[in-house]
Amino acid sequence: MIPHRRFSRRTFLRGLGAAVAVPLFDGMALEVAPAAQLAAEAVDGLAPKAGDAPRRLAFMFIPNGAHMPAWKPTGVGKDFDLPSILEPLADWRGSINILSGLAQDQARAGPEGGGEHARTTATFLTGVRPFLTAGKDLRAGVSVDQIAAQHLGHLTQLSSLELGCAPGPQAGECDTGYACAYSTNISWRTPSTPVVKEVNPAAVFDRLFGGGAREERRESESRRRHLRQSILDFVLEDARSLRGGLSANDRRKLDEYLHSVREVERRILAPPAKKEALSEEGKLVRPQEAVPDDFGEHMRLMGDLMVLAFQSDATRVCSFMVGNAGSNRGYQELKIGEGHHWLSHHGNSAEKQEKIRQINRYHVEQFAYILGKLSSVTEGDSTLLDNTMLVYGSGISDGDKHAHEDLPILLAGRGGGTIDTGRHIVYKDETPLMNLYVSLLNRAGVPIEAAGDSKGKLTELSI
Hints:
Blueprint: E1 12-15, E2 18-21, H1 35-38, E3 56-61, E4 96-103, H2 116-124, H3 144-152, E5 161-164, E6 173-175, E7 178-179, H4 180-184, E8 188-190, E9 193-194, H5 201-209, H6 214-227, H7 236-243, H8 248-269, E10 277-278, E11 284-285, H9 295-311, E12 317-321, H10 340-344, H11 350-375, E13 378-379, E14 382-383, E15 388-393, E16 409-412, E17 423-432, H12 433-443
Parallel strand pairs: 3-12, 3-15, 4-17, 5-12
Antiparallel strand pairs: 1-2, 4-16, 6-7, 8-9, 10-11, 13-14, 15-16
Helix pairs in contact: 5-9, 8-9, 9-11
């Protein structure tokens, strides 16, 4: 039997202004555990070891809390029924854990008074109370995704990826004396430097798959936009050459991956009415209309881009803001014209609470789609979902009370086989949300003992 070629995890298909990283082929996992990760074995023995597939971390934030009676299961352990909001996750029940009892104390009201929503986003991944200011003297904490990026980012093309479905201002005041930067970011590289999310799918696609010199990237983008060409058209020669050295199974993986890249690209370019324009300097300007009008499609498309980034090992760390703090978006697709934030202050109105339930369920439906995409990608004997730790939830439970305890938190994925899934786990009241993040960072190979206001690590996650 003739042995197949071995490939580096940094193998790219290259062409004019294009650099398409390849997916994880058989045998590639042997190269993904450098000494820096091996040193983390001291952390409870849960960190990746040589030969393991990469472990990915993702954090998805939803605004305005949740309608908790339709979120929280009544049963405990594996004996629970999915409540109304979580019913769309029925197919993925065995790959998720619903975590009750977690709290974000630093988001609560204190001497500063109002600003609950700004504090919620600023503390969601930091566990650090933000400094009250509407100016440039921002001060929060380093977010856990950026802690992971500092330890793992040198292994990948991008140290982290920040996504969202709603743009937001970075200057000025947005919430009771708090700067807008607190409301529109969950990722913080330093206590004074937020990492601004990208909401335009086309921009994320070009970041993932653009390559070469700046002028080459511009030429490639211009040709693709004007001639409706695919980025894959520029790397066909490399792709044909690569296929010749692959096993039958890896050829299938490559074909499926390239099909996914093309399908996402097609959806980004699909709306025929979305035309480019020329600036006064004669340069091509990507239209804002590249952001889908349909919210569900926007959220799914950004989820697809996250999956492609993980599949190609372009990054192992991602944050995803479904909405900004206090989002007051209406949901015409659900025939709900009132703003989300306004509805969250329901005053025990059954009508408002029902509309909140519908919005929450709609978000979960898109989340279920993303889980389906993650589970469809095979990596050896496991799937991309098996090797991912994806937190979905909010730093508020009941929006009417601005409650920051017993949060709606869901954890998807098995962390490379270190997490026992398919359960509703109820923790002691006021258990810090940051305890969860420390536990996940350890499983990703980040040897830390504390972050933000954590007081330990979560028990009962491990198999």
